[in-house]
Structures are given as C-alpha cells and as structure tokens.
C-alpha cells in the first residue's frame, strides 16, 4: 500500500517552502523518524522526518522547487510491501562521532551508508497538517555525499599490509566528485555547514598570502640563519585591536606595526585585512573578461527563504511606518571601564561581557521611563507593552534575523549577558527557532561590530523603535575645559512617528546615553 507524505505546516504559519536537499532516493528503505528531506522556509532550514516505514516509491518534487503546504512530495510503500531481507537504515541511537553535544545530529550516511534521524528523534503524529516536532533549523545546508571511510584510517587501523598513506591514495583515486567533497563532508558532520568549509579553505590562503605580503614589506631586513626555527613573538597591541584581530582571524605577528613602541594600531590591522581581501577577491578571481557570454559575466541568486522574507518585511516597514531618526554621540569611557571590571569579577567568570550588554540594559531602563517607545501601532489603537521582548538584529549566512529575548526586563545583568551570547550564537549557526523571532517589542542592532560609526536602522515590523550601536573608539573629547582622549560611540535611533513624537524619541535616546555615560545609574 502506498502512503503519500505531503508538505506539512512546520508550525510557523507559513504557506510554502523550498526543497533544499533530498536525503533519500527512490528504492531506499526508510524507517519512522528517518530524515527524508531538508526544506527552507522564510525563517529557517528544517529537516522533515518520515512518519512512515517502508520503501521510497517516488520522489514527487525536485530539489530547488518551491511547493505549498499540503503538496504531495514523496510516496512510501508500507513496510509489509518491502522486499524480503530489506534492512532498516533508521536511527541507530549512536551519539555524534565528534562528541559535540550542542551540534545538530550528524548525517551518518557520510560514513556508514545509513540515514540519520532528526536531532531529537521525536516522531510526527501524522503527515497531514500537523506541526513537526523534533526537527529544528540548521546552518547552511551542505549536500553530503557518500565517502570512502578508508581514507580516514591511521596506519594502526588500516588492514594488514595497507598503510594509511596507501589508503588515502586509494581514496583519492575514487570519483572526482567524491574527492572534491570528502573533507567537506567531515566538516559538515560537526553541524557547522558550508560556513566551516569556506572558512577552512580561506584560512590556508590567507595565511600563505599574509606571510608573503609580510616578507615583501620586510624585504631587505637582516635575518639570522636560525630565525626560521625561533617562534615569532606577537606584536604589541591594545586590547581592542587584539580583540578585533581575533574576530577577524588574523595573527598580529603577521601585521606590520607602525604605532609607538612597535604597537599594531587599528589602522595597521585594517590595512592588512584590506590587502588580504584584495588578494583574495582580485581581478584574477572575480572579474570576467570582455567578450565572454552574458551568462558567464553575471551571477543570479534566487530570492527565497529568509532573504525573501527579510526583503518583504523591510519594504513593509519602510513604506508603512513613517520613520524619524535621531543620533547622539556618547562618552562611553565609564561603560568600557565597567565592562572591564565585570570581566574580572568572579560572578561573571565564564560569561561573555561586551558593551552591547550595557546598551541592552540601558534600553530596558530607558523604555521604563518612556513606555510609549515599547509599543505597537494597530490603526485603531496604540498597544503599550509592559514587558520587553528585546530583539537583537543578527547577520547570518541566510540573511538578517531579529530573534528576541523574552521578558528581558526580568533578567539580571549576568542572565542578560548569557541570553545575549546564546541568542547570537544560535542565530549565526542557523538554529534559531521561529518562536524566537515572534513577539518582539523593541530592537537593537550592533553595527559597531562591523567598524561602522552610525547608521539609520529600519524598524522591525510590529515595533515602534530600534537603536543602532556604533563602534566605540578613542577620540579627542572636551572634559572640564581640557581635551583628552575618551572612548566615544554614536547611537542612532529610528522611531515610528505615528507612535513616538520627536520629544519622546529625544528623551528616550538621552536616557540611553545617560546609562552609557554612567552605568552606575542602573543601580537606582
């Protein structure tokens, strides 16, 4: 008996989804909860587990197709009709080989030929019209391919008379597509997806080119014969520069220092990073030559999923809510000192503390003093929210996401720091759940992480305000008639003018600035 699996409503209230990758083929034997397909909705990538046990008779939609909820996508014969001796390739209950407890369930088909289940192993009650349980979103999908396990054996594990090098050579002699994607499969098993593959590929190129660039700039310098064996000492740099270098994946020992006392300045770091980008994306690797066909000179990216939903929301917000934006420069020197003390506090040991934490707390504090910024316009009434679901704009490989921290007003400073870190890490890994992006009341966006001073943010639909946090850097600042270096940042706020008048938006931004200038006010 044939059983047809239709595209279910995955609990997000969406009407369609894109087929990303099939995990089974026609003729395969499947078990209940075995992953059949990856789909991309407007908010995330989701794995769909099978509600049936049996043999795949026909795949009804192709990869890349966009289908509506309720559309038949695959037919499976009942287990009673399966060929004799068919084995159950379902979930074995084994743990991920890499031991990462927080990573999505790995695709064991890459090593054992068996298909993995969804991350939680919970089943669907039916294939028709019910929300899926236990299949969450993933990072950028990597289409996994079967690979030869012998290529990963050590000499000790290889069969008698077959060394690891021989095994690797045999594996390299396999199909070209398998050689190309084998190591990508191993990275995909960690749950990091194509972002990890791209990072691994670029890391080697960046280091090689960085070293050659450094040698060219140091040409003519004397170097002892034994210098190659002496470990390089990292150049001196201030903490903000070291942090930026770490986030960019740059070794400070590779950067030419021009600052006083041999220190690497932020200008040095940015110049080095710009050089690497220039080499990586230079004319030989990006630009095409005149005379080539038009389709070879243009790249077309289909608008779908998160990118499509983001575009629709931004247009809706920009043309339905009359935006008014204001900006204020803030002396955040005491915030920087406060962050430094929190990092040294035993109470915050193991917790990531950044200036964004103080801004988040400042926004909560200022909204309590100016409640109408934490509201929604409905044409017939203004709904003021007496709770704060604080949205954090996060750039992800799939586009802009704005998950929110529920009831942020009830969290202590330490709890808020933990929630911020978990929220951003989950978003960047592509594991944000649809419920985490619903019900936001006010948002913040940290454009300073990209080195930007300020900008005009667009309000998240359904909210009335958003605050942009610019980069914090030292500038000359007048204090009691003296010009001294201080840590300065610029805040930008956008408001729905139907809800928030000019004086209210100014008072709100001034209150946020007051906290950044004097965090001790949070103790009031």
Secondary-structure content class:
alpha+beta
Based on DSSP secondary structure assignment, what is the total number of beta strands?
21
Strand percentage: 15-25%
General form: globular
Radius of gyration: 27 Å
In which range does the helix fraction lie? 25-40%
Mean pLDDT value: 74
Q: Gap between N and C termini, in Å?
A: 70 Å
What kind of sheet is the major sheet?
7 strands, mixed
Low-confidence stretches: 82-145, 147-181, 220-231, 278-283
Helical segment count: 12
Entry keywords:
single chain, 524 residues, alpha+beta, seven-stranded mixed sheet, four-stranded antiparallel sheet, 12 helices, 29% helix
A few lines on this structure:
The protein is an alpha+beta fold. The protein has helices at residues 109-112, 164-172, 176-188, 194-217, 239-248, 266-280, 294-297, 305-320, 333-344, 355-369, 413-428, 502-517, and strands at residues 2-6, 16-22, 29-30, 35-40, 45-49, 54-59, 66-68, 72-78, 236-237, 263-264, 323-331, 375-377, 382-384, 390-392, 394-396, 399-401, 404-405, 442-445, 465-469, 473-479, 482-496.
Describe this structure in words.
The structure is a single chain. The chain has 524 residues and is α+β, with helices and mostly antiparallel strands. It is 29% helix and 19% strand. It is built from twelve helices and 21 strands. It has helices at residues 109-112, 164-172, 176-188, 194-217, 239-248, 266-280, 294-297, 305-320, 333-344, 355-369, 413-428, 502-517, and strands spanning 2-6, 16-22, 29-30, 35-40, 45-49, 54-59, 66-68, 72-78, 236-237, 263-264, 323-331, 375-377, 382-384, 390-392, 394-396, 399-401, 404-405, 442-445, 465-469, 473-479, 482-496. Strands 11, 14, 17, 18, 19, 20 and 21 form a seven-stranded mixed sheet that branches. It has a four-stranded antiparallel sheet with strand order 1-8-6-3, with no helix packed on it. The chain has a four-stranded antiparallel sheet with strand order 5-4-2-7, with no helix packed on it. A hairpin with a 2-residue loop joins strand 15 and strand 16. Helix 10 (355-369) packs across helix 11 (413-428). It is globular, with a radius of gyration of 27 Å. Mean pLDDT is 74; it is low at 82-145, 147-181, 220-231 and 278-283.
